[in-house]
Amino acid sequence: MGSRDERRRHNLVPLAALISREMKSEKMEKPTLRYGYAAQSRKGEDYFLTKTDCQRIQGNAASAFSVFAIFDGHNGSAAATFSRDNLLNHVLGAFPRGLGRNEWLQALPRALVAGFVKTDKEFQSRGETSGTTVTFVIVDRWTVTVASVGDSRCILDTQGGAVSELTVDHRLEENVEERERVTASGGEVGRLSIVGGVEVGPLRCWPGGLCLSRSIGDMDVGEFIVPIPFVKQVKLSSAGGRLIIASDGIWDALSSEMAAKACRGLPAELAARQVVKEALKTRGLKDDTTCIVVDIIPPDNPIQPLPTSKKQNKLRALFFRKKSHDSANKLSKKLSAVGIVEEIFEEGSAMLAERLGSGECSSQSTTGLFICAVCQVDLAPSEGISVHAGSIFSMSSKPWQGPFLCADCRDKKDAMEGKRPSGVKVA
Ligand SMILES: [Zn+2]
């Protein structure tokens, strides 16, 4: 007797094993998260999201992660609120089932791309014309993953005073590569010209006059304004760090360094307010101005904020002195103690085929059917079109290999690459 019971009991093992393996792999303890936000509205088109109770495995508190995001809308707020309400679910829906923590983090960049494109496609199908920037930050213990379109920046400040940018600004004025891509895909880039032919203001894309090269929404501007995010994933050292996520109302007034310096030594709640205050002091309230500050704090050091700039200089001096007579091995240990950040992933290409990769694991659903890598609909065997088909990549990878796209998403991909006029569907 009991052989079936035994088998059933055995069936329970994988999940338990998975959880215990994850607990064991947790060599460093979990950091504490503290966050604060502040906003000053002028047009009422900035929205944000803070969600600290997400779970990779429903009901398993050990699988918790947090999401922080800013959506800076233009030409109305519908795209911003739609993205705030749907993007997270679309990203989570793009994961294959049953992934462990490390596999999940590895699959996250691709899930973010799929989630952004699906959100854009769904929003555009509603026929609304507004658009939004998105800066979407997922914090899973010491690993920070940022996906962004537009110019709402996310910066990282670490112990030792190194400030780094985790996003790139998708602004036509500052981003040559993006300017070339938009032009090659059929967009026209130029400045606003006023009476007498005098050109004023930043470079914009015509028709529409948008200054950004990537966004969610913006159906009336053209599909070459793509929703494919720049994605960067980093792992912080055990010294933790501070994230500052803010809309361009901040970054038009303050450099990344200035914003980081302005709030060092303050707890997150006050820090966000201080950054907004500092930006307004410099430039006045010309735009919606939103800021989220997230502190990732080592467990043995739960309330000590980042050092102020004086202390930080001392730390830096100490570190450089060490450098001259320490062996390489000792030095690298010192580096991680001071706050060296490990870069895990970075990709900014606007080509969907490059971003969805050759992931075999994501192309098959649990029912054994193929699914669209973007919108996750089931595909009949004859329906799926490889993301690589007809592209330059079909030389090196096999066009019958996944990931696959449904006909609709394939249309969207072609339009984004300028191979098909926007808004025109092939019957
Ligand atoms: Zn699809």
Q: Helices, strands, pairings?
A:
Blueprint: H1 3-25, E1 32-40, E2 46-55, E3 64-74, H2 78-92, H3 101-124, E4 131-140, E5 143-149, E6 153-157, E7 163-165, H4 176-184, E8 188-194, E9 198-206, E10 216-217, E11 230-235, E12 241-246, H5 248-251, H6 256-263, H7 268-283, E13 289-297, H8 309-325, H9 328-338, E14 342-347, H10 352-356, E15 370-371, E16 378-379, E17 385-386, E18 404-405, H11 407-416
Antiparallel strand pairs: 1-13, 2-3, 3-4, 4-5, 4-10, 5-11, 6-7, 6-12, 8-9, 11-14, 12-13, 15-16, 17-18
Helix pairs in contact: 2-3, 6-7, 8-9
Zinc ion (ZN) is lined by residues 372, 374-375, 377, 405-406, 408-409.
Brief rundown of the structure:
Pfam families: PP2C (PF00481). The protein has helices at 3-25, 78-92, 101-124, 176-184, 248-251, 256-263, 268-283, 309-325, 328-338, 352-356, 407-416; strands at residues 32-40, 46-55, 64-74, 131-140, 143-149, 153-157, 163-165, 188-194, 198-206, 216-217, 230-235, 241-246, 289-297, 342-347, 370-371, 378-379, 385-386, 404-405.
